């Protein structure tokens, strides 16, 4: 201590401090003091808890206390009687600095330089006026070693005693412990807040409970998903939420995996299916103490899976080619019915774009952000179509997946289910489909639980369902249930004016895909293409264009028909055809075969060129692009 004090005195002399100084050289104004107190409010509030104890201990007015910030600025004084008056007269008041630069050697200035408890008395002080004091000061240091302030007990030197320093140290340590405890509580509270915030931002319902089902905590999604208030959940038992609680807890006890199990939850509104995953929470002895239940919305999971697997509609009405009146009328009608919940029956020959229209209807309606699921009834074996549509439960049949599998109705829940080639559906399945349409519920094969589904159904066929009803191949009641909003797509031969648009579109699309040049189509060839029958419709035309781009020329030979086919079409015309209709057909086929060489066609037909032109005009055989 002698060396510490001696060195401090030397520093004071070097700073030319006057030993006759009474008042600190640095006392801040009220505005600065207010700011300083606000900055140190935390340490002041904690220190105040010990003021009463100090005042009671030193009630004989022989001592007073000081709290400073880490730089020695007095934040608070406490004590009473004559000694406090003396201290005030010496301006030992809030705002005055007790550091070495401002008031010379004292216990508080030495704590600042030495970072440890200090007691000095009498002549140890540099300032003469302070030599009547005994000062005992201790730093208030947090667990990271940062000094937060200084606690000082000052009294007359004749009352100097080592226990005074002990009290100052004890108070400083007590303040430090309270700070550490409050910081720990604040840290825990912050961690709890972080956890709650994270839980609330996780797009799943998270609930914790003990093995008796007493709910401990839950995030906001639990309330949103199940419809219960906080008050209701706080008095709830978790086992009331779903069936299978005992099986679940048994799995947890046996350290068995319990994840992505489909359960029916008794929500406030009705029973809804969710995916449930359970995680155990162990105590220090390795025993299961609590469990975390994570509920996920089946619809959202399936929507994500559908997006990943490409189960979404890509076609929109603006992508459907055609400016003919028939196409415009069909598109207008399709747009009008897009928002309806009623079933749609799309009729049209193979290759007319029935799925393109189904996807466009979906994308134009309110379900555009939901799943679009397509199933071709003709492409699925008859014995598998039921499981494809309705799914199956675990163990429903040999080879069934352990976890079961959802059907197309479940996958499309909230969205659109497109059933292509509906006329190929077996009769026994037709009755089951009718029930789902009418009741809005499905039951998996091998299961007992009925699930409510909200699905917009669009069916399509290239066959005449009315004839199938008459012939007993299609149920009359299902036909009328599907045919609520019929949409008939025209074949390509009825929209000849759109053929150049299709050719242009397919040329650009295919040439880009194959990285090949577009093949030009001249005037006469375009007329041939427009007058060709295109029995495969748009699909046949697209294949034709791809062939042309690969061959780098228009394969006109594919448009020619064999004599056998010509004879068959010409000679076996159905009764009821007029001579004019037969003549028109023969002229068109001859034009195509002779690649619109008018002289050759006229010679074959045995008529003059002018006569041929008159007949082409009469029958509206188009020769323009």
UniProtKB/TrEMBL annotation:
<dbReference type="InterPro" id="IPR025662">
    <property type="entry name" value="Sigma_54_int_dom_ATP-bd_1"/>
</dbReference>
<dbReference type="GO" id="GO:0043565">
    <property type="term" value="F:sequence-specific DNA binding"/>
</dbReference>
<dbReference type="Pfam" id="PF13426">
    <property type="entry name" value="PAS_9"/>
</dbReference>
<keyword id="KW-0238">DNA-binding</keyword>
<dbReference type="GO" id="GO:0006355">
    <property type="term" value="P:regulation of DNA-templated transcription"/>
</dbReference>
<dbReference type="InterPro" id="IPR027417">
    <property type="entry name" value="P-loop_NTPase"/>
</dbReference>
<dbReference type="GO" id="GO:0005524">
    <property type="term" value="F:ATP binding"/>
</dbReference>
<dbReference type="InterPro" id="IPR035965">
    <property type="entry name" value="PAS-like_dom_sf"/>
</dbReference>
<dbReference type="InterPro" id="IPR002078">
    <property type="entry name" value="Sigma_54_int"/>
</dbReference>
<dbReference type="InterPro" id="IPR009057">
    <property type="entry name" value="Homeodomain-like_sf"/>
</dbReference>
<dbReference type="Pfam" id="PF25601">
    <property type="entry name" value="AAA_lid_14"/>
</dbReference>
<dbReference type="InterPro" id="IPR029016">
    <property type="entry name" value="GAF-like_dom_sf"/>
</dbReference>
<dbReference type="Pfam" id="PF00158">
    <property type="entry name" value="Sigma54_activat"/>
</dbReference>
<feature type="domain" description="PAS">
    <location>
        <begin position="191"/>
        <end position="233"/>
    </location>
</feature>
<dbReference type="InterPro" id="IPR000014">
    <property type="entry name" value="PAS"/>
</dbReference>
<protein>
    <submittedName>
        <fullName>Sigma-54-dependent Fis family transcriptional regulator</fullName>
    </submittedName>
</protein>
<keyword id="KW-0804">Transcription</keyword>
<dbReference type="InterPro" id="IPR002197">
    <property type="entry name" value="HTH_Fis"/>
</dbReference>
<dbReference type="InterPro" id="IPR025943">
    <property type="entry name" value="Sigma_54_int_dom_ATP-bd_2"/>
</dbReference>
<dbReference type="Pfam" id="PF01590">
    <property type="entry name" value="GAF"/>
</dbReference>
<feature type="domain" description="Sigma-54 factor interaction">
    <location>
        <begin position="320"/>
        <end position="550"/>
    </location>
</feature>
<dbReference type="InterPro" id="IPR058031">
    <property type="entry name" value="AAA_lid_NorR"/>
</dbReference>
<dbReference type="InterPro" id="IPR003018">
    <property type="entry name" value="GAF"/>
</dbReference>
<keyword id="KW-0067">ATP-binding</keyword>
<keyword id="KW-0547">Nucleotide-binding</keyword>
<dbReference type="InterPro" id="IPR003593">
    <property type="entry name" value="AAA+_ATPase"/>
</dbReference>
<keyword id="KW-0805">Transcription regulation</keyword>
<dbReference type="Pfam" id="PF02954">
    <property type="entry name" value="HTH_8"/>
</dbReference>
């Amino acid at each position: 201590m002698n060396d510490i004090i001696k060195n401090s005195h030397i520093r004071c002399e070097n700073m030319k401090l006057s030993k006759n100084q009474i008042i600190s050289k640095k006392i801040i104004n009220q505005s600065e003091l207010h700011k300083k107190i606000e900055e140190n409010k935390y340490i002041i509030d904690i220190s105040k808890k010990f003021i009463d104890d100090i005042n009671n201990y030193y009630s004989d007015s022989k001592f007073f206390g000081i709290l400073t910030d880490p730089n020695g600025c007095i934040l608070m004084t406490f004590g009473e009687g004559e000694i406090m008056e003396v201290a005030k007269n010496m301006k030992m008041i809030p705002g005055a600095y007790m550091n070495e630069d401002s008031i010379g050697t004292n216990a508080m200035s030495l704590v600042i330089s030495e970072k440890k408890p200090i007691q000095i008395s009498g002549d140890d002080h540099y300032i003469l006026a302070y030599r009547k004091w005994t000062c005992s000061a201790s730093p208030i240091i947090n667990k990271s070693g940062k000094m937060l302030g200084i606690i000082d007990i000052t009294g007359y030197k004749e009352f100097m005693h080592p226990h005074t320093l002990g009290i100052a140290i004890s108070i400083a340590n007590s303040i430090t412990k309270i700070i550490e405890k409050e910081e720990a509580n604040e840290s825990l509270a912050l961690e709890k807040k972080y956890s709650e915030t994270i839980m609330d931002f996780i797009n799943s319902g998270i609930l914790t409970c003990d093995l008796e089902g007493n709910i401990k905590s839950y995030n906001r999604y639990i309330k949103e998903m199940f419809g219960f208030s906080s008050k209701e959940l706080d008095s709830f038992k978790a086992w009331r939420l779903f069936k299978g609680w005992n099986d679940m807890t048994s799995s947890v006890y046996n350290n068995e995996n319990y994840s992505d199990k489909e359960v029916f939850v008794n929500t406030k509104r009705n029973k809804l299916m969710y995916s449930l995953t359970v995680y155990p929470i162990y105590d220090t002895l390795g025993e299961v103490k609590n469990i975390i239940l994570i509920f996920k919305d089946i619809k959202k999971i399936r929507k994500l899976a559908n997006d990943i697997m490409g189960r979404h509609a890509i076609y929109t009405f603006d992508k459907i080619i055609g400016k003919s009146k028939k196409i415009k009328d069909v598109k207008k009608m399709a747009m009008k019915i897009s928002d309806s919940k009623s079933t749609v029956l799309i009729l049209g020959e193979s290759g007319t774009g029935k799925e393109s229209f189904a996807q466009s209807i979906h994308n134009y309606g309110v379900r555009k952000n939901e799943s679009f699921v397509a199933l071709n009834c003709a492409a699925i074996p008859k014995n598998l179509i039921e499981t494809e549509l309705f799914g199956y439960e675990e163990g429903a049949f040999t080879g069934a997946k352990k976890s079961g599998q959802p059907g197309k109705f479940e996958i499309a829940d909230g969205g659109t289910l497109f059933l292509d080639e509906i006329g190929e559906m077996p009769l026994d399945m037709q009755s089951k489909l009718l029930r789902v349409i009418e009741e809005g519920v499905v039951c998996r094969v091998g299961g007992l639980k009925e699930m409510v589904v909200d699905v917009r159904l669009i069916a399509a066929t290239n066959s005449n369902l009315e004839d199938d009803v008459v012939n007993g191949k299609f149920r009359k009641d299902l036909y009328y249930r599907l045919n609520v909003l019929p949409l008939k797509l025209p074949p390509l031969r009825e929209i000849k004016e759109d053929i150049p648009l299709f050719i242009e579109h397919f040329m650009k699309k295919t040439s880009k895909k194959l990285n090949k040049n577009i093949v030009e189509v001249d005037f006469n060839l375009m007329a041939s293409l427009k007058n060709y029958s295109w029995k495969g419709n748009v699909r046949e035309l697209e294949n034709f264009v791809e062939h042309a781009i690969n061959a780098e020329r228009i394969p006109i030979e594919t448009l020619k028909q064999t004599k056998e086919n010509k004879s068959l079409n010409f000679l076996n015309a159905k009764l009821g055809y007029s001579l004019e209709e037969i003549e028109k057909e023969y002229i068109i086929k001859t034009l195509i075969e002779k690649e619109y060489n008018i002289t050759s066609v006229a010679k074959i037909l045995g008529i003059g060129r002018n006569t041929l032109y008159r007949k082409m005009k009469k029958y509206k055989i188009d020769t323009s692009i």
